[in-house]
Design a protein that fits this description.
The chain has 317 residues and is of the alpha+beta class. It has eight helices and 17 strands. Helix 1 runs parallel beside helix 6. The chain binds thymidine-5'-phosphate and aspartic acid (ASP).
């Protein structure tokens, strides 16, 4: 799939159209900004790290049933996604006090919270992404009540999944920012990226940052942090199960099916008029890297005979 036209260039990403209307390509840049673009620098390897981290996390979320825009990773820094219209809302989830919450409420950084805190911000750099509430969103028609409910539920569920995944990477997920989009049928997808640019990640059991705070606060070791998170994410296996159905193409005579049909009829089950036999495979996997189309390739190259058989597959929990 190739890029057709640059549709949008943001601070850390470019979005391109593709020959297919319902797909975009996102390209991750090395540029980092903080304080709404006031501070800017290139961080070598950041684009690649964020693309690889986001891809694997979106794959995990797909397996866990969270609808998201990710289709597949195309290269080190390019991702193919569903084209969606982004809601002008940022959703922030906090598991521990840090960043603007610590400042705004005069709380100690690192204070534990009784339950996750969900905040909304209005996406506008000029206004510095001001915090808004549900009433603002509904009154200004930024999303409908039903959309908002879905966005909140998906955010909290994603938080649970990510806390557990990052813990396996020996990282604590302190807080994060999500963006959501809508396709032409009105389906809601988690979109944008999930990376050290959009999450606070601390070494488990400490307050050592492995995220963009190293850049925001001039803590040093910025490139190393992105590289380290990338390595940990790549090396943390995702447990997944895929169910594959393989059946003969409708045009192919099913000899085994005919034998079963005759046997059924001889036992008096005359209501059966056709039997087609298929195969069901369940694959349990422990994957370290996200690699697009692995299951498709398994089906095409070994499991199914593409001349005679059709296949379908799905993730199962
Ligand atoms: P905050 O504490 O500065 O409000 O940030 C909360 C989380 O949101 C943190 O993980 C960083 C992320 N974030 C973004 O992804 N983009 C932004 O523009 C800001 C301000 C925060
Ligand atoms: N996204 C914000 C900016 O553009 C910065 C941040 O993540 O703190 O500058």
């Amino acid at each position: 799939m190739e890029k057709v036209k640059l549709l949008y260039e943001g601070k850390a990403k470019r979005v391109y159209s593709t020959p297919e209307e319902d797909k975009f390509i996102i390209e991750f840049k090395d540029t980092a900004t903080a304080f709404d673009g006031l501070k800017k620098a290139d961080i070598s390897g950041k684009g690649e790290a964020n693309c690889i981290i986001s891809s694997k996390i979106f794959e995990l979320l797909t397996i866990k049933g969270i609808k998201n825009h990710y289709i597949k990773r195309l290269s080190e820094r390019e991702m193919l996604v569903k084209s969606v219209k982004i809601f002008p809302i940022e959703v922030i989830i906090r598991n521990r006090v840090a960043g603007s919450m610590a400042k705004r409420l005069g709380l100690d950084v690192g204070k534990e919270l009784e339950r996750p805190v969900l905040e909304f911000c209005y996406k506008s750099d000029e206004l510095h992404d001001p915090m808004i509430n549900e009433d603002h969103i509904l009154a200004l028609n930024l999303a409908t009540e039903e959309e908002l409910k879905t966005i909140k539920e998906m955010s909290l569920e994603t938080n649970k999944i990510l806390i557990e995944f990052f813990r396996k990477c020996h990282l604590e997920l302190v807080d994060m920012k999500f963006e959501f989009g809508k396709d032409s049928q009105g389906n809601i997808y988690l979109a944008d990226e999930i990376s050290p640019d959009t999450c606070r990640l601390w070494e488990l059991g400490t307050t050592t940052s492995w995220d963009k705070d190293r850049f925001r606060k001039d803590l040093g070791g910025v490139e190393e942090a992105y590289r380290e998170v990338k390595e940990r994410v790549i090396n943390t296996p995702i447990d997944s199960k895929a169910r594959i159905f393989i059946r003969l193409k409708p045009s192919i005579l099913d000899a085994q099916g005919s034998v079963i049909l005759n046997a059924l009829k001889s036992l008096g089950f005359n209501e059966v008029i056709e039997v087609r036999v298929g195969k069901l495979l369940e694959l349990k996997m422990d994957r370290k890297v996200d690699e697009p189309e692995r299951i498709e390739r398994m089906c095409r190259e070994l499991l199914a005979n593409p001349v005679m058989e059709d296949y379908e597959w799905e993730w199962i929990e």
